[in-house]
Amino acid sequence: MRRHVAPALSILAIALAACTAQSGDAEAVASNTTPAGPLYVRHAMQAEVNPAIVGIWNVTNNIFTDAGEQDPSLITDEQWASLAENAGKLAASGERMAAAGDIRAAAPGNMATGEYEVPMADVQSFISADPQGFRDMSASFAALARNLEVAAMAKDGATTLDLVAQMDTECTVCHAQFWYAEAQ
């Protein structure tokens, strides 16, 4: 099963790239989310989820043996700490998304998309069609991330790798429903 992680990560990386900020939008993105205001999904992906999952991948994608198998014994103490920290960040973001009342695809200053990106108005329509489904998926994502945080703190390699693979799948499923639904 772990041999299939690399292709799945490649697909997810492409999907996450579509969530990145346009040049010049970083300041506008950072300033338009408040605790009492709406949840801006694109901002959460850009500022919270993407950096944390990339931090996790930086560890788990670099522990392959010559035989192509992941070997958790190659993870250093510093990397275990990084895994736990990034998993905690993912969990906090997922928990915030799961608890959000007003869910918006993107803030007014972060609506621009490139030629091959999904328009934020489309993403909003997908979220608006099932906001509770979005919250439920966010809660599931948060729970997986909390479990990953615990596994990383315990330096439990097998559980860590299984949870990272599960999180990759969770991300892909959520993106398919709420970001790329028309492509289905």
Please give a handful of descriptors for the protein shown:
mainly alpha, 184 residues, Four Helix Bundle (Hemerythrin (Met), subunit A), elongated, 63% helix, disordered N terminus, 7 helices, two-stranded parallel ribbon
Q: What would your notes on this structure say?
A:
By secondary structure, the protein is an all-alpha fold. It has one domain: Up-down Bundle (Four Helix Bundle (Hemerythrin (Met), subunit A)). 63% of the residues lie in helices and 2% in strands. Strands 1-2 form a two-stranded parallel ribbon. 33% of the residues are buried. The model is unreliable at 1-34 (pLDDT under 50).
Helices and strands, with pairings:
Blueprint: H1 5-17, H2 26-30, E1 39-40, H3 41-60, H4 77-99, E2 103-104, H5 120-129, H6 131-153, H7 157-178
Parallel strand pairs: 1-2
